[in-house]
Amino acid sequence: ANNNPDYNDPKTYVGVDPLATTQDWVSKAEGKGYAQLLDEHYKDYSRLFNRVSLNLNDVDKANDMPIDQRLANYRKGAKDFYLEQLYYQFGRYLLIASSRPGNMPANLQGVWHNNVDGPWRVDYHNNINLQMNYWPACTTNLSECELPLFDFIQTQVKPGEKTAKSYYGTRG
């Protein structure tokens, strides 16, 4: 990561051309087909995901109840330890899928937001909103998923020095 970006360059924080990169990714994906893509995805995420297993109250297998029914029952007070296990692992999966070394960190709504311009502009707020995406990283054995956040914060030091000087009259 560039820890000393030129904040005067308007392209410093822009990144790659999303149209070009997305078209390239889609083209490559089309050539592979569903089975190969699924296999590559499984191999990629499972080396991180399979580090942790969680078994609450000796619940190791779920019945075939759909998630929407599980949630409806849970909201009515029914105990469902398997749903809690799924929720824990789903959170881990989302962090794995949204924050990997060499990429941008997870943002407020993540890559799953259904719109380009959602709440808070689906951007980065270097405050509790961004930080809480990473609260479970270490305790769920996904510490390398924090690296994009650390890299991002380091790129904010230089512009932050300028902001501190102009807003507060400090050295930076």
Low-confidence stretches: none
Q: Which percent band covers the strand fraction?
A: under 5%
- The ordered H/E elements are HHHHHHH
- Helix amount, in percent? 40-55%
Name the overall outline. Answer: globular
Distance from first to last alpha carbon? 21 Å
Q: What is the radius of gyration computed over CA atoms, rounded to a whole number of angstroms?
A: 20 Å
- Count of beta strands: 0
Tally of helical runs: 7
Largest sheet: none
Indicate the mean pLDDT.
87
- SSE-based structural type: mainly alpha
Question: What would you note in describing this structure?
Answer:
The structure is a single chain. The protein has 172 residues and is mainly alpha-helical. The protein has helices at residues 18-32, 34-49, 67-75, 81-98, 128-131, 147-155, 157-168. The longest helix is centred in the middle third of the chain and has 18 residues, at 81-98.
How would you summarize this macromolecular structure in one to three sentences?
The chain has seven helices and no strands.
